[in-house]
Design a protein that fits this description.
alpha+beta, six-stranded mixed β-barrel, single chain, 15 helices, 409 residues, two-stranded antiparallel ribbon
Length: 409
């Protein structure tokens, strides 16, 4: 420990001998870390915002269904119905961390208005229970469905546009019941909504669950959607509920299993961040390696003198490595501080972004610098400067003593 402290004390003094060059090296590392934090923080914010939007507009944190519903239930959803009221639902509602549990009944059919007839995919919902889970569903026109008995429908904005229907007008819904017979109902359009997915908005509608059950002539629901107080608790709550609910009657599916678009986006952007990280690391390595090489050349006689009086070669090598690590620490911490302040400033102003693929409208981006990202940036600064210092330090430790003493003579 005493030797390490001595190494860093000497490294501090050696860096102060050429303040300008040391400052350039530190600023180079800091600039790279700032770039990494801003790029990584923007991607982290996209992940966080998309995650919450996906949860709070469609999926919830957990969906509870009958086993094999997602594999076979699309063809015959009525064979996988959950009970309308049950002790198991109350168990889920009483679980710590659960905010609400809402039933949903998925169905499909045809929607008609005037001469237009379009296929739709519907979710029958309990409006009061659904409201917390659908906080990211934006009502574009009209109003939300007020209660489970209301004889009205909420249309995705794309579906409403394709039907040519306005708020307050009447449309006809035609479906096939569980027994195979046709069933139809006239409903007024309460309003239109939009989510993060344009594809979903082009075909989706929402109907009060009481009216939907009468239309479909069934009781029960195809899923229970669970909202938690924290997304990070999802897998913990899933594991606890699996221990309480019978495995042969209920399947618990966390949101990330169903969020295919989100998962693909994370994989794509994560690879982009890795490329940025590699490029920044390469720039730091080349710059610091050049700086350390210059330092070794300027101190050739000094190194030769140290070796001549008995200084061990590993101590000389350790001295130059300590200088590189110190540059990494100073540049990393400085870059994290500057990056965090810039991230806060940019987030206050906002980053106007165009609509991404599959979405109908743009958004205002921000930069999210988490402690994990800051730690990753500091590790990047330390590893790259350490790597950059190894070759110059090795060169210094392997100098020929006689040639070093004759340098510049």
């Amino acid at each position: 420990m005493i030797g390490v402290i001595t190494d860093f004390r000497l490294a501090t003094r050696n860096l102060r001998r050429n303040t300008q060059r040391s400052l350039v090296a530190v600023l180079t590392v800091a600039s790279g870390i700032v770039a990494f934090l801003l790029a990584g923080g923007f991607i982290a914010w996209i992940f966080h915002d998309m995650r919450e939007a996906t949860i709070l507009s469609q999926l919830g944190h957990i969906q509870i269904v009958r086993p094999d519903y997602f594999e076979k239930g699309i063809a015959d959803p009525y064979a996988f119905l959950l009970p309308a009221q049950s002790a198991e639902q109350r168990i889920v509602e009483d679980e710590p961390g659960v905010i609400t549990v809402t039933p949903r009944l998925a169905f499909s059919g045809l929607a008609s208005h005037g001469d237009a007839t379009i296929a739709f995919v519907g979710d029958e919902i309990d409006p009061e229970r659904e409201r917390p889970i659908s906080s990211r569903v934006t009502i574009q026109t009209g109003v939300d469905i007020a209660g489970p008995e209301q004889r009205s429908v909420l249309l995705g904005e794309g579906l409403a546009r394709n039907l040519g229907v306005q708020t307050g007008e009447v449309i006809v819904l035609l479906v096939t019941t569980a027994s195979g017979s046709p069933s139809a109902v006239e409903v007024s359009v309460a309003g239109t909504f939009a989510t993060i997915s344009k594809e979903y908005d082009d075909v989706a509608l929402r109907l009060p669950i009481t009216l939907a059950r009468k239309l479909m002539r069934i009781q029960g629901s195809t899923s229970w959607v669970v909202l938690l107080d924290e997304t990070e608790k999802t897998h913990l709550v899933v594991s606890r509920l699996r221990a309480k609910l019978p495995a042969d009657g209920f399947e618990l599916v966390p949101w990330n299993t169903l969020a295919d678009f989100y998962n693909k986006t994370v994989v794509l952007f994560s690879k982009q961040v890795s490329v940025v990280k590699f490029i920044i690391g390469l720039i730091i390595v080349l710059t610091i390696s050049n700086t350390q090489t210059m330092s070794v050349l300027e101190r050739t006689q000094e190194v030769g003198t140290s070796l001549a009086i008995g200084q061990r070669r590993r101590v000389v090598m350790r001295m130059f490595i300590a200088e590189g690590v110190l540059i990494g620490v100073l540049g990393g911490l400085g870059g994290i501080l500057i990056g965090y302040l810039l991230a806060q400033l940019v987030s206050m102003i906002g980053i106007p972004m165009p609509p991404p693929p599959g979405m109908a409208r743009g958004y205002v981006g921000q930069i999210l610098v988490s402690s994990a990202l800051a730690g990753e940036a500091l590790v990047l600064a330390l590893l790259t400067t350490l790597l950059a210092s190894v070759m110059p330090a090795r060169r210094a430790s392997r100098m020929n003593i006689v040639d070093s003493l004759r340098h510049n003579q």
